Amino acid sequence: MKPIKLKINTKTQKYSIIIGSNLGVNISKILKENSIYFQKCLIIIDKNISQKFISKIKKSLNKKKIYIHFFKASETNKNFNSVNKIVNILLNKNFSREDCVISVGGGITGDISGFAASLFKRGLKFINIPTTLLSQVDSSIGGKTGVNTKFGKNLIGSFYQPNLVLSDIEFLKTLPKRELICGYGEILKHSLIANKSFYKFLDKNSYKILKLSSPFIEKAIYESCKIKKNVVEKDEKEKGLRKILNFGHTFAHAYEASLGYSKKLNHGEAVILGIQSALSFSLKNNLIKKHDYYSILKHISEVNLPSKIKKFFKIRDLNKILSFMIKDKKNNSDKINLVLLKKIGNPIINREYKKDDLAKFLKNELRN
Is residue 156 within a helix (H) or strand (E), and if so which, with residue range? Predict the structure, then answer.
């Protein structure tokens, strides 16, 4: 299948997302086609990436001066220390602002790489090659970069748009089903906040998408990216509309942090649980239409997505979850700011609720 190109045009950067297969062997050609030139590059590679893919990328860039930095991607390694290691390499090798950082990995690798690229000499070229379904449909678009701290997830970071995103389907074929489901959660989220017809497509073709069948997987990635592109172009710095992309995330980030970013619950699974919680809270507050609510619940069940927070938490975890929700960066007061859903394709932003309201709701969710 011929690669699909999606152009992003923000106030700070214009760049393309290219979706296709075996893009690694053609990186030099793609760079030239997109007028991206540099002499030196630091390739930051997730340690889980196979040598086969690394060899293809290096071979295609053989006319460049290449440095390699392997990164052990985990939420606990998504910190200032990891960023400092990258910046030190760039300083030691005398990189200029016209040189390039290339990220090859999932969302964590992309976030760390993009943040380091934004800091070095106030910004050098950055190319993102997301290797998970989650990063291809979410973190690689929109320019959010950052690190975690003991106070919570992504509280330190910057907005820094890449020069190019290459989403290669071949990487997805090496992923376990759990990782694919994580990415599917973000695809589902995009459909729920913006496009009912896309939701219907997912409802009909979820099995084919998760089997990576062509052209269904390409269409799912493209449509998901297009939704995020439309939001980011209108609101790059998350002043208003872009908040809809946080549907389910206030719950999700608190769930992740409460478990210490452990392997028990990865980001994509936490987002799916967060979507479920946001839907239930929307129903409790008489916001969402029951028909849409039960349709989404049925879809989540049929795709076998994680849906019950009580499988991961006990009542004793309630205060910990609430403390992370209160610290969420979207809050502007002592209340908790949520993105909720009125109907499929129609989200509601800037709904604030007291801690006690959320405590009562979550206590009920943990018991049922």
Answer: strand 152-159
| Predicted local distance difference test score (pLDDT) of residue 241 | 84
The pTM of this model reads 0.89
Q: Which residue has the higher pLDDT, 206 or 150?
A: 206
C-alpha torsion angle, residues 263, 268, 272, 273 (rounded to 10): 30
Triad 46, 51, 55: Cα angle to 5°: 105
Domains: count for the chain: 2
DSSP of 24-89: GGGHHHHHHHTT---SEEEEEEETTS-HHHHHHHHHHTTTSEEEEEEE---TTT-SHHHHHHHHHH
| CA geometry: angle 238, 269, 199, nearest 5 deg | 70
> Is it the case that residue 330 has pLDDT exceeding 80?
no
> Domain end: 144, 172, 200, which one?
172
Q: How many residues does the chain have?
A: 368
Tokens coding 22 = 């075996």
Using CA atoms, how far apart are residues 94 and 91, in angstroms rounded to an integer?
5
Task: Evaluate whether 164 touches 117 at the Cβ level (below 8 Å).
Answer: no
Q: Between the CA atoms of 46, 49, 55 and 60, what dihedral angle is there, to the nearest 10 degrees?
A: -70
Task: Give Cβ neighbours of residue 139 (< 8 Å, ≥ 6 apart).
Answer: 106, 107, 110, 111, 130
Query: Higher-confidence residue: 24 or 172?
Result: 172
Q: 137, 172, 207 — which closes off a domain?
A: 172
CATH number of the domain within which 164 lies:
3.40.50.1970
